[in-house]
């Protein structure tokens, strides 16, 4: 059971259409190593994608490429047929395993992120109030963010991403260091993003979480997507030997 977060007025970004996201021939090469080795991918609106794969497979790097934090050595990414621009950047958000928060109050972290996107005044106050309520952080609004527990910090990171009303939310192991209750709280916020119309791309090693949050599984191995399957089909029996080994907890060589 997911701990469903209250919905409030969470909406999804207006503005430019960003889907389909199309990646072609993505490569990341450094020091003679191919960390991402020729990835083609198409993502449509409201998809629920989970990326699985062993440590070092390139899952985080793929998210960072799609989010624009890392530039590919080769290949290209287009959003509804055009390269990433300000409209695209304002429609996507990323949440990391370790929350990256400002050394300011909880509320100031939300206010700053919204101001950076040009959202000010009454609209900003409303979104901050909604985000605090949704993440159940309103009583901690004035606290320094660095004093929050790990679970609270991750709820704040999610609330900050949701306040931006993204159409596409990237999540890189957002619950990797959280206890079960905090994990469910974060999953509730992911669910809230989806109810608001966001597509999600989630990297996780938690198979239960993958089942709860995927319609589609991308299974990565050695910088490649070796399997791209409907979630039900993947969990019923991966097509790839590497996927089978991963699900069975075996080491694939
Ligand atoms: N900025 C970088 N410079 C050099 N190598 C990097 C960089 N970022 C990642 N790598 C390497 O690329 C490979 C893939 O890393 P990545 O973090 O994408 O793996 P992952 O699948 O997310 O693994 P995990 O499940 O352990 O988080 C690893 O071998 C890693 O050491």
UniProtKB/TrEMBL annotation:
Give the family from UniProt: Belongs to the ABC transporter superfamily.
The ABC transporter domain extends over 21-247
What molecular function terms (GO) are annotated for this protein? Answer: ATP binding; ATP hydrolysis activity
Keywords on record: ATP-binding, Nucleotide-binding, Transport
Name-wise, this protein is ATP-binding cassette domain-containing protein
What is a single Pfam family found in this protein's UniProt entry? Answer: ABC_tran
Query: PANTHER family, from UniProt?
Result: SPERMIDINE/PUTRESCINE IMPORT ATP-BINDING PROTEIN POTA, SPERMIDINE_PUTRESCINE IMPORT ATP-BINDING PROTEIN POTA
Q: Key word Transcription present in the record? A: no
